[in-house]
Amino acid sequence: MTTGDRRQRLHKLRNVLHSVLLVLGMALIAAVCAWAIWGWEGVLWAMAAVAIAMVVTPSIPSGLVLSLYRAQPVARHEFPEGYALLDALSRRAGLPGVPRLHYVPSAVANAFAVGNRRDAAIAVSDGMLRTLTERELAGVLAHEISHIVNNDLWIMNLADAMSRATAVLSQVGMILLLLNLPLVLAGAVTVPWSLVLVLVLSPTAMSLLQLALSRAREYEADIDAVGLSGDPEGLASALLKLERRQGRIWESLLLPGRNVPDPSLLRTHPPTDERVRRLMALSGERPRRTDDRPGPVVLPGG
Fold it and tell me: Which residues pair with 167 in a beta bridge?
């Protein structure tokens, strides 16, 4: 095992543990919020409600998400280079089938995955295809396939279910507190302020953990993408190029404070510089498996 392989496994283990701890932290916040209202019986009911919601509530259909972005299916003969990359990456990832490729007619450089391991689709925008080389596109596709392999969509759906449950519990608790406010003011009922703080702060804490979980899954998808493509520099180059392109688009809008960075706690994606730094730390001793063609890839339909 090379030093790069050991470093990659160490990074992946750290990110997996980080994700597990964040999910457990979200579950703990939901449990504490339920306990503040109904005691230990409320904790059991809250756990049951989240479990039922995950089983009964269907996930958003892939077709609906794709239609919202006006994504159009791309046939193999329209984009053979893209499907050649998808075939190779899917085979290395052990997917039972190759994700369907869709084209989004948008100048904004973007790519996203929908579905699961058995039935998945990857959408790539016109802006991204016109911006990236084939080598960089391979890194982006590997990143999206990693999201599919890691069941990130299901994990984030679980986090969203716990976040919504906590928000509902917080609202119920505050309503009960308001209904009993006359008794509290009369001294007939005593309400510990610590429980009030739990009800007030739980939704905010849950949202911050959900954002942190999203960033952790992005880091893990980056690392797994390197394992699929064997080319950390390709993905790093794509991230830097996409950030520069997005910066030009948004900085052209006359918005106050546009050059002020978002607080790190409120980012759904990690800072690009940190993602690139981690990718370049994996670049040693790792062979390149994709072409580094100088020009943009051939677009669907010409």
Answer: none
> How many CB atoms neighbour CB 218 within 10 A?
19
| Helix segments in 39-79, DSSP class H | 40-56, 62-68
Does residue 212 form part of some domain?
yes
Residue type present at position 201: L
End-to-end CA distance of the chain: 44
Catalytic residue set: 144
Note whether residue 28 is domain-resident: yes
Question: How many structural domains does the chain have?
Answer: 1
* Total-model pTM: 0.76
CB atoms under 10 Å from CB of 126, counted, come to: 17
For every residue of 138-179, DSSP letters joined together read HHHHHHHHHHHHTTHHHHHHHHHHHHHHHHHHHHHHHHHHHH
pLDDT value at position 25?
81
Judge contact between 103 and 267, C-beta under 8 A. no
Reported as a pLDDT band with limits 50, 70 and 90, residue 237 is very high
Query: 37: closest CA among 179, 227, 235, 157?
Result: 179
pLDDT digits (tens, 9 = 90+) for 6-53: 665 666 676 677 677 777 887 788 888 888 777 787 778 777 766 666
Q: What is the pLDDT of residues 92-105, one digit of tens each?
A: 999 999 999 999 99
* Domain extent for 158: 3-252+259-281
Residue 166 included in any domain: yes
Q: Is residue 299 part of a domain?
A: no
